[in-house]
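User: quick one - fold this with NDP bound?
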Amino acid sequence: PAPLTGRAVLVTGGSRGIGAATALRLARDGADVALTYVNRKDAAEDVVRAVEALGRRAVALRADSADAEEAAGVAERAADALGGLDVLVNNAGVGLLGPVEGISVADLDRVLAVNVRGVFLTARAAAARMTEGGRIITVGSCMALRVPGPGGTLYAMSKAALVGLTKALARELGGRGITANIVHPGPIDTDMNPADGPYAEGQAALTALGRFGRAEEVAATVAHLASAAYVTGAEFAVDGGHAA
Ligand code: NDP
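Assistant: Sure. Structure tokens for the protein plus NDP:
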């Protein structure tokens, strides 16, 4: 039987890339899915249709993770739409690479608002709504484990913050039977980081496997964590050996 049958899932940034692959994978495993997007309504609706084609319920919610109220409110909206909330996948994130001298205060605020503040607010609201068996899975980055060169100051800082959030949430929520874990993708072929982009070859060379990963390969680990009961506060590299 599908391991997530009857479970209600919220995937932030579920319209494209790793989030879209995760929404589809969790639906294939039996879950009903709410997903957020910020600009690409068309892409979000494609994912909704693909989930519905699997016989599961799906809803696309516009919610900008950079907006504190929207980030805090979306867990409740998802729970209302699906009749509860069992699993949160904090996936929405933005990348910004470049020399530390060139990072403006506006860059700093924007990246931290989406990658850290929004994750905190959505996770807190989701946890308030969850019951025993709840799962919070956050998408970090291989850059939280190993920074292989210059230009990653802001992005690596933002993703490393999520490790602290995950471990602390695991401690805070463990007594209620709710787990919190973090998955660190390596270079994954998406719009954010295309496998044929200008920096792709160098990134592939930094992995032990010598290649980019596919969004589905990250989704597989998220799916495992969505049903695992005795795993919490843990970090999982899905990075082709980038951290090895
Ligand atoms: P994409 O850029 O391909 O997709 C980003 C998704 O997040 C889209 O669905 C987008 O919505 C959504 N999103 C972006 N900003 C916001 C926002 N402010 N509020 C709500 N949703 C938002 O990214 P990836 O799939 O590559 O990345 C997903 C996660 O994985 C990110 O957290 C990223 O940092 C992380 N990651 C990615 C790696 C990679 O190599 N690809 C490596 C390591 C980590 P819309 O479609 O509306 O724009």
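One thing worth noting: The longest strand covers residues 179-185.
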